[in-house]
Amino acid sequence: MDNLDITRQRLHNQRLVGSPCERPEDVVRWLCAVQAQDYAGAKWAVAQRTTDVTDAALDRLFNEGKILRTHVLRPTWHLVTPEDIRWMLRLTAPRVNAANAYQYRQLELDDAVFARSNRALVKALQGGAQLTRTEIARVYEKAGIRASGLRLAYLLMRAELDAIVCSGPLRGKQFTYALLDERAPSAKEPGHDEALAELARRYLASHGPALVKDFAWWSGLTLKEARAGIEMAKAHLQHETVDGEVYWFAAGQAACGEMETPLVHLLPNYDEYVIAYKDHSATLDPALTGRAGDALMAHLAVLDGRVVGGWRRAIQRKAVTVTMNLPLRPKKSEKAALQSAIERYSRFLGMPITISS
Question: 69 with 183: CB under 8 angstroms?
Answer without folding.
Answer: no
